């Protein structure tokens, strides 16, 4: 039931207080009508006796407290979904942004979704090939997983995210279609154009749905955008049987928007001024990834977040790490040396990798990845030792490991921005070729039959 009030009492930033309201519900949508007839949208954020706190989706400037009206629509925020959304670009409020016609809705869906019943969850165990060796070979992405990318200001996380969106596919699964839902929050116009052009030039736009919120768009849109993106993904995955990859960038801007709204509500701040419910709020996004028993489709999630001052203990990456199944960390040192993608494989982690290595991929994958981790870590230690004591202090074995670390970074981690590497021929075989740098007796994490089968014979 719709109710209209002329009792707007106060406007503070993105928040508006309406007095003397009755039977108003949490998350209810509100239309604010200005004296000139303009309509702006908001949602009920809090209800206290006869007062309702409304969060504005658009700017609050120009609202006349005495002459403006607030109409409570009696429903929560929904989004119109349809298979025709593929290939289209939308704003953070769900409006068409690409100049095309409006979507003819198949149904209206609440953007807040519903949590997946833990009993109904199916375990993620299918390999998604991204075409990036440092991810596919060592920190693999699994269908139904949530695997964030931890980056920093100035690092090429946008390029990495766009490359994954273009190249990702479920290996050896032709039964279901693959789709990408891409949500960008608080990005610049240049970044938005880059993403759109990347999708269009490669043809990936045909299997993608893009949601774009620019830096000069309303801040509150950054709170609704990821929920709209995930609602779209749920529709495509669980009703249209598609494998959906959701990429959300940049989650730091989302958390900043939460902090701004929290400050406007005069809530007691938590760590570094972020609201105390930041963990809970992030989990409502991340936990919408997964697989459901009896459903062909799945949602795999790659949130991208920039760590302020490259600090892994900052609340956003810290809390994200508790919820997600690992992380891909980008290295500023590798980026300075011109290595793309600058994935720091040692602190990166995919907690589901061992469930897939050798089961959905080649039988040597797991042992090979462990050998690469071990050899690269020792090579890094040897290089650090050489800086302190000089290269002459290194043993012959240490020199080989140091050489291995250099070659590993230059031929395995480094690859072209448009280079799509196939797992077995381009990633695993490349790793075996690198291991010829080391003495055979140093390959202690590999089985003898694997060495005989895959290690290239020296000429």
TrEMBL record:
InterPro entries for this protein: ATP-synt_VA_C, ATPase_a/bsu_AS, ATPase_F1/V1/A1_a/bsu_N, ATPase_F1/V1/A1_a/bsu_nucl-bd, P-loop_NTPase, V-ATPase_su_B/beta
Name the SUPFAM superfamilies on file: C-terminal domain of alpha and beta subunits of F1 ATP synthase (SSF47917), P-loop containing nucleoside triphosphate hydrolases (SSF52540)
Indicate yes or no for the key word Ion transport. Answer: yes
Mind listing the UniProt keywords for this protein, alphabetically? ATP synthesis, Hydrogen ion transport, Ion transport, Transport
Q: Where is the ATPase F1/V1/A1 complex alpha/beta subunit N-terminal domain?
A: 8-74
Q: Which PROSITE patterns match?
A: ATPASE_ALPHA_BETA (PS00152)
The ATPase F1/V1/A1 complex alpha/beta subunit nucleotide-binding domain, residue ranges? 131-350
Q: Does the keyword Ion transport apply?
A: yes
Which segments constitute the ATP synthase A/B type C-terminal domain?
357-454
Q: What GO MF terms are annotated?
A: ATP binding; proton-transporting ATP synthase activity, rotational mechanism
Q: Which is a GO BP term held by this UniProt record?
A: proton motive force-driven plasma membrane ATP synthesis
Q: What role is this protein assigned?
A: Produces ATP from ADP in the presence of a proton gradient across the membrane. The V-type beta chain is a regulatory subunit.
HAMAP family per UniProt:
ATP_synth_B_arch
What family does this chain come from, according to its entry? Belongs to the ATPase alpha/beta chains family.
Tell me what this protein is called: V-type ATP synthase beta chain
Species of provenance: Candidatus Falkowbacteria bacterium RIFOXYD2_FULL_34_120
Lineage runs: Bacteria, Candidatus Falkowiibacteriota
| Name of encoding gene | atpB
């Amino acid at each position: 039931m719709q109710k209209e009030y002329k009792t707007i009492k106060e406007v503070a930033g993105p928040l508006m207080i309406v007095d003397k309201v009755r039977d108003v519900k949490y998350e209810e949508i509100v239309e604010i009508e200005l004296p000139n007839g303009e309509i702006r949208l908001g949602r009920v954020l809090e209800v206290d006796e006869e007062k309702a706190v409304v969060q504005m989706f658009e700017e609050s400037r120009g609202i006349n407290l005495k002459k403006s009206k607030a109409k409570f629509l009696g429903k929560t925020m929904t989004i119109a979904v349809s298979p025709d959304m593929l290939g289209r670009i939308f704003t953070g409020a769900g409006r068409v942004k690409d100049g095309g016609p409006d979507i003819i809705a198949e149904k209206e869906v609440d953007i807040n979704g519903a949590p997946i019943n833990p009993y109904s969850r199916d375990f993620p165990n299918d390999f998604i090939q991204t075409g990036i060796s440092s991810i596919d070979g060592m920190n693999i992405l699994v269908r139904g997983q949530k695997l964030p990318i931890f980056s920093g200001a100035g690092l090429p996380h946008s390029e990495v995210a766009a490359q994954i969106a273009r190249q990702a596919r479920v290996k050896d699964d032709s039964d279901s279609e693959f789709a990408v839902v891409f949500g960008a929050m608080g990005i610049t116009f240049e970044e938005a154009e880059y993403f759109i052009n990347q999708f269009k030039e490669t043809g990936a736009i045909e299997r993608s749905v893009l949601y774009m919120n620019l830096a000069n768009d309303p801040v509150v849109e950054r709170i609704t955008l990821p929920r709209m993106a995930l609602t779209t993904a749920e529709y495509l995955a669980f009703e249209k049987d598609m494998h959906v990859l959701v990429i959300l960038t940049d989650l730091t801007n989302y958390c900043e928007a939460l902090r701004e709204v929290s400050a406007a509500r005069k809530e007691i701040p938590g760590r570094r001024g972020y609201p105390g419910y930041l963990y809970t709020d992030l989990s409502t996004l991340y936990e919408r990834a997964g697989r459901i028993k009896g459903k062909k489709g799945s949602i795999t999630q790659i949130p991208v977040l920039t760590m302020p001052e490259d600090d892994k203990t900052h609340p956003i990456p810290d809390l994200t790490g508790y919820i997600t199944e690992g992380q891909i960390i980008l290295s500023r040192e590798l980026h300075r040396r011109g290595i793309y993608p600058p994935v720091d494989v040692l602190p990166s982690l995919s907690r589901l990798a061992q469930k897939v290595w050798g089961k959905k991929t080649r039988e040597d994958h797991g042992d090979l990845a462990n050998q690469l981790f071990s050899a690269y870590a020792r090579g890094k230690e040897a290089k650090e030792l050489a800086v302190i004591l000089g290269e002459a202090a290194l043993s012959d074995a240490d020199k080989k490991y140091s050489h291995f670390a250099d070659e590993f970074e230059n031929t395995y981690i480094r690859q072209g921005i448009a280079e799509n590497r196939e797992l077995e021929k381009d990633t695993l075989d490349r790793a075996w070729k690198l291991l010829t740098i080391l003495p055979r007796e140093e390959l202690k994490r590999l089985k003898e039959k694997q060495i005989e089968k895959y290690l290239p014979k020296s000429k």
